[in-house]
Amino acid sequence: MNCGCPGTSMNRAWHSQAHQDETVASFLQGARDGYFVDLAASSPTLYSNSRALEEQYGWRGVCIDALDHSRILFASSNRSCTFVQALVGDEGGRRVLFRQIIGGHARGGKLYMLSGIVENSTQPTCWANGRFCLSIEQLMARGARLDHRLMLVRTLDEILRTVGAPSTVDYLSLDVEGFETAALRGLGTDFAVRVLSVERPDSDAKRLLRARGMRRVCEERMVADMDEMYALPDVKGPCRTFLPLEWLYNATRRARVARPHIPSHHDTSSGDRRRNSQKQK
């Protein structure tokens, strides 16, 4: 029986932030022994979109992340996926500047999950397609330490060939904070993806997915402003989680209400806003 609580249902444990793992398992009708690609995997346990598929359904796959922190976490975990430390993009072989965020604290998440490609060492760290940003000063004020390094870009095609992935990937989890389009451009037609979840895809990413013959599915079961799910036409399972729609609605409201409290690099403090308002009067 369902307890109505995020994280458990039908005697199974789920770990995704917005129940992507549960929705995928339902949509693929509980398929066993599938193959997943988890990019960026970040943590073997926290908000993992692949852990439940691996542990509960016997799937295998590859977990990809650029962070030293993630490599250490996976090495000390009991996960069976092949971990690859790599920075994924559309042009393999070129070097880009990568900012690794170490330590620090943030309300509602871990700062290291915002690590990513930057143009220079003073650029703010942004996410959600640039809608929200933290300046260098704001990151350091939260106790973060920044490590900038040049990293070699690898394509998904190259990584999947290296690890010996099958030609059909049952599930691709794509969450690389604004670089989803570049990652998709590096995935050729040698590998077919049956189901894919992607966080806030831009118009180019959606066009690439349509070009692969994928359609959006399960809109009513995904938390708005977070992930979207796509599938090939021949994959037609039920879009079902064991969460009531009321929970999804409330989760969407929480996500939307919380976002204005995330400071951007151009925000002023509430005190500054009050003073400015008084000056205008």
Can you put this structure into words, describing what you see?
The strands form four sheets. The protein has a seven-stranded mixed β-sheet with strand order 5-4-3-12-13-15-14, with helices on both faces. A four-stranded mixed β-sheet has the order 6-11-7-8. The chain has a two-stranded antiparallel ribbon with strand order 1-2. The chain has helices at residues 20-27, 51-57, 68-75, 136-141, 156-163, 180-185, 203-211, 245-258, 270-280; strands at residues 8-9, 12-13, 35-39, 60-65, 82-85, 87-88, 95-103, 116-117, 125-127, 132-134, 144-154, 168-174, 192-199, 215-217, 227-231. It is α/β, with parallel strands linked by helices and 281 residues long.
How would you summarize the topology of this molecule?
Layout: E1 8-9, E2 12-13, H1 20-27, E3 35-39, H2 51-57, E4 60-65, H3 68-75, E5 82-85, E6 87-88, E7 95-103, E8 116-117, E9 125-127, E10 132-134, H4 136-141, E11 144-154, H5 156-163, E12 168-174, H6 180-185, E13 192-199, H7 203-211, E14 215-217, E15 227-231, H8 245-258, H9 270-280
Parallel strand pairs: 3-4, 3-12, 4-5, 6-11, 12-13
Antiparallel strand pairs: 1-2, 7-8, 7-11, 9-10, 13-15, 14-15
Secondary-structure content class: alpha/beta
* Rounded mean pLDDT score: 83
Detail the poorly predicted runs. 1-9, 254-281
Helix and strand pattern: EEHEHEHEEEEEEHEHEHEHEEHH
Task: Provide a short characterization of the protein structure.
The chain has 281 residues and is of the alpha/beta class. Helices cover 27% and strands 26% of the residues. Residues 1-9 and 254-281 have low confidence and may be disordered.
